[in-house]
Specification:
8-stranded mixed sheet; homodimer; about 15% helix; alpha+beta; Fumarylacetoacetate hydrolase, domain 2; SH3 type barrels; 6-stranded mixed sheet
Chain lengths: ~425, ~425
């Protein structure tokens, strides 16, 4: 599909994340006013709640956007999602007779505060990046045992903590936790010294299920995608994770981009997952290309210093698509709900500069990376700002997610009862 | 505290779970009517929603019980919880001038359907039973490595799936999943053959937190307790759980008792956790006895056959209290919310007949147990009904939870796309 022209000029450039082809879903507020649903278009936001209030946009026989989250639209199902895109496109397309009407509902992105775009029901994090699994496995278990025996047969996942999901721009405090340095006899309690990022994509489940669903049906349940940074305390994790998996190491924060890019906006960028190294069981086989070609990068800016891009990779690296992950998630009869968030797992490419975590980039801290400012990094320092960016590249335009940022704040002082 | 006498005669017996001292919180419906909040008293239910509707019970300047769950009362905080108990006690105590009023709001438990008593925000499952951890560790890793090195230092936990929590009486379908029998080269997809129960207690978090809380404060955040059966597919778990922990093995269902016993009703039954085998870090130390003396048992009834009690144990076995678990849960900055559910971990005692799972009772299937009907069991069979019961024993009365039951249904037929 070519670029769809809008009368919003800033939406017609090759570098905006938000052309008319995109229409990503966010929640915004201005000053002290209540938060509202909006769509990004160029450098503006279209006030969807306002349009609905005035009767200019109608999706159902009840209000859908009178709440500051997109779950209500998701509840209506795929036909309504398509109807919504058609109605909004009609407002914003070049030559639209509705331009004058819509102009009253446009506000500059520079003037708004963005909020979490949906209510996160539950959060699951997968481990579907093969390079990441091999890298981490090699560091922890040696090259011979790098990939767990189940890895090529199923998308390994674990349940994360939905309450920890925050929107881009939220400061993230370095966590406290139990730490047991190599060689120590007993653990101590203090701030994590190996606080890290994980570059991921998140799939937003838009339809509920109660029984097992096929990969094809799972794909249709996905409303859209976000960028996702799964902050991880490697030292807390190393001590706590056996035998039941990561817990407090992953519970401090998970930052997502402020905009949900609807799956409909990404259809031109479908691509196949990598070739299977062993055959998958029938239930996990894909009926067609279900992954996406989405370029990703991570920037790290020390406090008061310019940013260095520390990683460039692509979502198409993932061995399992979100549809495969969601299908596997339902095999046990596990009910899925609107607003469930599925993290892809860390997205690392085959080269050193495409690794999606500092754990991998610095090889467990043994090979610190050097930033453009000359500083070295093994793990995150207080004051560091992380920024994830991503886009699918069209012909003369791109479909982007907006920046997914977070700054590391110093750990809390230990309270007296913890000393 | 002695038995508090009620004018509801069935509440004054030594064997009812629900004397006036208890007042547990449930949600009930009659026929097709909407579900309402109620309190169990003897063999009756007091219609709390009805009392509030008529202005006979007032907790706040807004309706608290106009929704079929108890989260709204929890939101009001501990002073309101105490006020609630005082007001309800005044309705139900022997000699109450309000007896005639309250009689209109009593219905027989035999006539009601019970529902999930609260909205489960997120569900965390711990692993705080030392005998259970040693038993499972011995089977999986040998006696020398039975207890993971972190076990005596922190309450190991993992995030479970809130959407899978169901109320007592809900049928539970045997899950499908990836299974890899010992010696097989590759996994296959089919019904679990090692489907199991886990006897646990659940703590219901009644107050939210955003920063780390002390053990003492965590204890005051707990609204009440339920019985909890964490259904587990051992064969799915064995194949999937490395390196990120249990996932689909624990996502089929988690059954809780229909009644939340408020922490206030259990204060007379406080007891200390077992002696520490190594000193705990200061943040996890308890300011006093924070566990509870609650007798527990599990009954197993094959279809059409009488029940055999297969395990008798006590909550006081748990090495970590719910308050310690909740404190540890907050160390990373993980936000906790009203309605969070914390499973204790499987409660096994030191003797064979006090083990809280079939995995332990049959020692991994090697020593099947024999039921009173003469049948043997290593794991659950289709049609088996599991019933958890529990109570704290007072002087001539007890504080009970009602039965926590579930029947195992046959697995779904494999859909064509999964064959």
């Amino acid at each position: 599909m070519p670029l769809l022209k809008s009368w919003v000029d800033s939406a017609n450039t090759a570098t905006t994340d938000f052309p008319l082809n995109n229409l990503p879903c966010g929640v915004f507020s201005i000053g002290d006013a209540d938060a509202r649903c909006g769509i990004a278009i160029g450098d503006m936001v279209l006030d969807i709640t306002g349009l609905e209030e005035e009767g200019l946009l109608t999706l159902a026989d009840h209000a859908v956007f009178d709440v500051p989250f997109w779950n209500e639209l998701m509840e209506l199902g795929p036909d309504a999602w398509a109807d919504f895109r058609a109605q909004v496109t009609e407002f914003l397309r070049a030559g639209s007779p509705k331009q004058a009407l819509a102009e009253d509902y446009l506000v500059a992105q520079a003037e708004v505060t963005l909020h979490l775009p949906f209510l996160v029901s539950e959060y699951t994090d997968f481990y579907s990046g093969k390079e990441h699994a091999v890298n981490v496995g090699t560091m922890f278990r040696g090259a011979e045992n790098a990939l767990p025996p189940n890895w090529l047969h199923l998308p390994i996942g674990y349940n994360g903590r939905a309450s920890s999901v925050v929107v881009s721009g939220t400061d993230v405090r370095r966590p406290l936790g139990q730490l047991k340095p190599p060689g120590a006899d007993v653990p101590y309690f203090g701030p994590s010294k190996r606080f890290d990022l994980e570059l991921e994509m998140g799939a937003v489940v838009g339809r509920a299920s109660s029984d097992m669903v096929s990969v094809a049906d799972a794909d249709e349940m996905i409303f859209g995608y976000v960028l996702l940074n799964d902050w991880s305390a490697r030292d807390i994790q190393a001590w706590e994770y056996q035998p039941l998996g990561p817990f407090q190491a992953k519970a401090t924060a998970t930052t997502i981009s402020p905009w949900i890019v609807m799956a409909a906006a990404l259809q031109d960028f479908r691509t196949a997952t990598p070739p299977r190294e062993v055959p998958l069981l029938p239930y996990l086989r894909e009926p067609g290309p279900l992954s996406y070609d989405i370029s990703l990068e991570v920037g790290l800016a020390p406090e008061g210093k310019p940013e260095t891009v520390i990683s460039r990779t692509n979502y198409a690296q993932m061995y399992y698509s979100a549809a495969q992950q969601l299908c596997h998630h339902t095999t046990s009869g596990c009910p899925m709900n609107v607003g469930d968030l599925l993290g892809s797992g860390t997205i690392s490419g085959p080269t050193k500069d495409s690794r999606g975590s500092l754990l991998e980039l610095s090889w467990g801290g043994k090979e610190p990376i050097t930033l453009d400012s000359g500083e070295a990094r093994s793990f995150l320092e207080d004051g560091d700002t992380l920024t994830l960016r991503g886009h699918a590249q069209g012909d003369g335009y791109r479909i982007g997610f907006g920046a997914c940022t977070g700054r590391v704040m110093p750990a809390l002082e230990l309270p007296d009862w913890a000393k």
